[in-house]
Write a structure and sequence with these properties.
Layout (H helix, E strand, L loop, with lengths): L3 E4 L3 H12 L4 E5 L10 E3 L5 E3 L7 E2 L2 H7 L5 E3 L4 E5 L2 E4 L4 H8 L5 H11 L9 H26 L8 H5 L16 E5 L3 H8 L5 E5 L14 E4 L3 H4 L9 E11 L10 E3 L8 E4 H5 L6 E9 L6 E2 L3 H15 L4 E3 L11 H18 L18
Parallel strand pairs: 1-2, 1-11, 2-10, 7-13, 11-17
Antiparallel strand pairs: 3-4, 5-9, 6-9, 7-8, 12-15, 12-16, 13-14, 14-15
Helix pairs in contact: 1-11
Length: about 375
C-alpha cells in the first residue's frame, strides 16, 4: 500500500514518477501502450531514420526550471523550428511576417510599412470571443482566409468562429523578418531522442514500469497509497456526463530512399489543399545524417486516440462537471492535457507535473528517505 500508482508514461506521468521516486516514494508506472514517452515516442523507422511516431514534437520553453530539470536526462541539440505555408502557389513563412506579406502581395514594405498595412486591413473586434475574432482583429479577412480558415477547418473540424479565442492567439503576427515558429528562450531537441530521455527519467530503483497495461484492468484491485492519473478525465468517470470531445490524427509515414532532403524547413503547412494539414521532415528536427529522408503527413479526424481537447465554451462547461468529480475523488490526482482538458505544450505539462509532485510530497510523507542529495534537484529553481 506504500506504492504510488501513476497511470500514463508520457510527460505528465514520467515527470511526476521521477520526482516522487527522488523524494523517497516507491512508484509503479503503467501505460496501455507498449512504449514509453506517450505521444512524444520516437524510434528509428525501417530505414534507420529517427521519426516521431505520433507527429512532430518540437521542444521549446521560457522556463529555466523546466529546461534544467529535463537536462538531467538528456543532452540537447539546438534547433529553431521553421514552418512554411503553401498559399497561392508559394511557400511563405508562417507565422505571418514581413517576408510573407511582401511576397504574397508583391510589395516592398519595411517594418513600419507592414505595421501600417496590417492596421489598414485588420477588422477590429471587441471583445475577442472566438478564434475568428482574434485573426480578423490581427490580420484581416484575406490573410485569415488564405492561412487560417481552411487549416482550422481541417485541424478542428470547425470554423474559426466556432473555436475559443485562445486557439488562434497561440500564433503571433510579426512585422519583421523573424521566421522562427517559436521565440522561446530555450529551443532544442533531445540529442538522443525523446524515448531515450524518458528511459533515463524512469531509470530509478524506486520506479517499476509496466507497459501494455490498461488502468481499467486493475483500478479496483491494485494496492496503492494514491493514484496520479494522466488519461482522459471523462474516461476515468465512465463518461458519466457524456464523452468530452477530442480531435484525433491519422499519420501517414513515408521514407524516400534516394532523396536526402525534400523540404527546406522542418514543416510545410497546407491550409487550403489536400486532406492533410502538414508534412514534417524529421531530419531537420534531429540533424541526423542519412542518404534518404523520412516524412509524415497528418490527417486530422474525429475518431481515434484523443490528441487535442477542443476549446469551446460548451466543452469547457462539460469538463467542469468532470473536474468537480475529480476534486472530491479520494487519493486520485489528475494531471496532463487529457486529464485537465487543456491544450498544453510539453513544457507546460512538465511544469504542472513538477508543481503537483512537490505538493504530493508534502501531502504524503515518503516511506523511505532519498538516497542522494541530487534526488531533490527537481524542486530547485
Amino acid at each position: 500500500m506504500e506504492e504510488v500508482l501513476i497511470v500514463g508514461a508520457g510527460f505528465a506521468g514520467a515527470t511526476t514518477a521521477r520526482c516522487l521516486a527522488d523524494a523517497g516514494h516507491p512508484v509503479r508506472v503503467i501505460d496501455r501502450r507498449p512504449h514509453l514517452a506517450g505521444n512524444a515516442f520516437d524510434l528509428p523507422d525501417a530505414a534507420g531514420v529517427l521519426i516521431h511516431q505520433y507527429g512532430p514534437h518540437i521542444f521549446h520553453t521560457n522556463s529555466e526550471k523546466v529546461f534544467t530539470w529535463l537536462s538531467r536526462f538528456t543532452a540537447w541539440r539546438d534547433y529553431e523550428h521553421r514552418v512554411l505555408a503553401q498559399v497561392d502557389g508559394q511557400l511563405l513563412p508562417i507565422p505571418i511576417n514581413r517576408t510573407t506579406i511582401n511576397r504574397l502581395y508583391g510589395l516592398d514594405l519595411d517594418e513600419a510599412g507592414v505595421t501600417a498595412f496590417l492596421e489598414k486591413v485588420r477588422e477590429p473586434r471587441e471583445p475577442l470571443k472566438t478564434s475568428e475574432d482574434v485573426v480578423l482583429n490581427s490580420v484581416g479577412r484575406d490573410l485569415c482566409d488564405k492561412f487560417f480558415r481552411g487549416y482550422t477547418r481541417k485541424q478542428w473540424g470547425l470554423d474559426l468562429s466556432e473555436l475559443s479565442a485562445g486557439v488562434a492567439a497561440r500564433i503571433p503576427t510579426r512585422s519583421n523578418d523573424d521566421d522562427r515558429y517559436f521565440t522561446d528562450r530555450f529551443q532544442a531537441m533531445p540529442q538522443d531522442g525523446y524515448t531515450r530521455m524518458f528511459e533515463r527519467m524512469l531509470d530509478h530503483p524506486r520506479i517499476r514500469v509496466e507497459l501494455g497495461i490498461d488502468f481499467e484492468a486493475l483500478r479496483d484491485t491494485a494496492p496503492r497509497r494514491f493514484t496520479v492519473y494522466t488519461g482522459p478525465i471523462d474516461a476515468y468517470f465512465g463518461h458519466r456526463f457524456g464523452p468530452l470531445p477530442y480531435r484525433s490524427l491519422r499519420f501517414e509515414h513515408e521514407h524516400l530512399p534516394a532523396t536526402a532532403q525534400v523540404q527546406t524547413v522542418g514543416t510545410v503547412n497546407f491550409p487550403n489543399q489536400h486532406a492533410y494539414t502538414r508534412i514534417t521532415e524529421f531530419k531537420h528536427l534531429t540533424g541526423q545524417a542519412h542518404p534518404g529522408t523520412s516524412v509524415v503527413r497528418e490527417y486530422p479526424c474525429a475518431d481515434g486516440d484523443p490528441y487535442y481537447p477542443i476549446p469551446r465554451p460548451d466543452n469547457e462547461a462539460l469538463f467542469k462537471r468532470y473536474e468537480a468529480l475529480a476534486e472530491v475523488e479520494p487519493d486520485v490526482h489528475f494531471i496532463g492535457r487529457l486529464a485537465q482538458y487543456r491544450y498544453y505544450n510539453m513544457d507546460q505539462v512538465v511544469a504542472a507535473a513538477l508543481s503537483l509532485a512537490e505538493r504530493l510530497a508534502g501531502l504524503y510523507p515518503a516511506p523511505s528517505a532519498p538516497s542522494t542529495s541530487d534526488d531533490q534537484d527537481w524542486s530547485a529553481p
